[in-house]
Design brief:
Order of helices and strands: HH
Helix content: over 70%
Radius of gyration: 14 Å
Distance between the termini: 17 Å
Shape: elongated
Amino acid sequence: MAANEKAKAKVEQTKGKVKKVVGGAVGNASLKAEGRAEETKGDLRAAKEKAKDAIKPK
């Protein structure tokens, strides 16, 4: 399950980055903002997974 969540985080980060760049290139502020939000959501998901891995007993 954790690998699935990590993959979701990476996909969200990548999609967000693409939207942010495209929005900036075409001058679409709402697309750029949506990309930033999605990238941040992916960053938070990744951080959550890292925290879970850090406290998981080995």
